[in-house]
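Hi all, long-time lurker, first post. I run a small reading group and we've been trying to get comfortable going from sequence to structure in the token notation. Rather than ask abstract questions, I figured I'd post a concrete chain and ask someone more experienced to write out its structure so we can walk through it together at our next meeting. Sequence below, copied exactly:
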Amino acid sequence: MNLNIVFFPLARITFSMPDAEDNFKKSCALLEGLFGDINRPEGLITSPVMLSIFADTIVQPDLIIYQCTTFIGGDFVTELTRRFDCPVIVWALREPSIDGGRLKLNSLTGAFSAGNSLYMQGHDFRFVLGNPDEPELIKKIQQTVRALEMVKKLKNLVIGVIGSQPAGFGFGALDEAQLAGKLGTRIIQTEASGIMKKAASYAPEDFSASLTELKSHSMGWEKLPEESLQKHSRLRKAYQDFIDENKVGVIASRCWPDFFTDFGAPVCSVLSLLNDSGVAASCETDIGGVITMFIGSDLTGGPTYLGDPVAIDESCDGIVFWHCGAGATSLSRKKEGPQLGVHPNRKIGPTMEFGLKAGEVTVLRLGKDQHGFRLFVMKAEALDEPRKFLGTSVTVRPEGGKSSEKVGRFIKDGWEPHFVVAYGDIVEELRLLGGFLNIPVWEY
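-- Answer (accepted) --
Happy to help. Here is the structure in token form:
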């Protein structure tokens, strides 16, 4: 998704212009290499008149990168905030040399001036320090852009909701007006009975591709009754048709008891394969959960896992997140692989049966409190542990350990009993996202 990124490189000609020009060229090369086309001037902006002329050519930006290429007064950034309402990155460059000689750029003081002005205006901004070839600076700029892209993606997100939350699972419901007002996201809803009716109507050739998909993504399918495999494949086809016909990006689906009692099959494996295919899908009609899965999946580039915190494993200081069998097959441990089985309570299949792979993870949740939305964030490690219970599970050790203590805090702080495990460190992107959306971030 393209953002309108505008680069404002500002300088005073009384400082070292050769050094400023060199940094300007390298900065343009960096930004264009990262983001393709950006709006930028042909050269350094060295006066208020030049700033005004260039600003006149700009439509409303999504992001301003404000580089104090040399010292520059706060009046320059004030002119930009007067014209444009968007986040700002204030970028200070390092001094070319600290050797008792001339102060060549004085960029850092310029950043202080800009920061003071933005702070006093209550304007959202981020400060970065470094030269265009520094990996840490590049990372910070990329994180900011990814978070802003997520804001835009959420505004365009359509959630397909199948059925309603089971009794006692109201935490998964979100007010559509509040959702649209805060995130811009909208909902298209259908009844579970309609999905089941459509699934039952297919001829065998209609769902043959879904049956092939299941067999190619799992092991042990030959142990299940053919009827169970076919019922899965009918549902998988019906879900995909609903997605395609309504152009939805994610699915929050009812599961029990309806699909067991009225269709004779779980939707666990359907949701698993949707997550594998890039469509975030939550069970128990958890709308906040699936938005969280979408955020985690997009920021990491892979599927996420939605699970209940069901146990504390004192032997490894880990929290066990579990669900009946909807984990994406690509997240399974290589030692186990994506086995098929039956639901632990209903004894009907297919469900996925495995422990999840090890790796650096971020645990997150878009939740609610008495005042509106909030965002749970915790950096952690997924341990190389086998399946802990029938279904799918992952054992997560929080950064710094103390699992028992932290779980107590989660409960005391009133968090919903569904959390998302995303593979990768996206803590900074989530902090930024919370800031851009004006949603409080609760870090653990």
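A couple of things your group might point at:
The longest helix spans residues 135-155.
The two ends are 31 Å apart (CA to CA).
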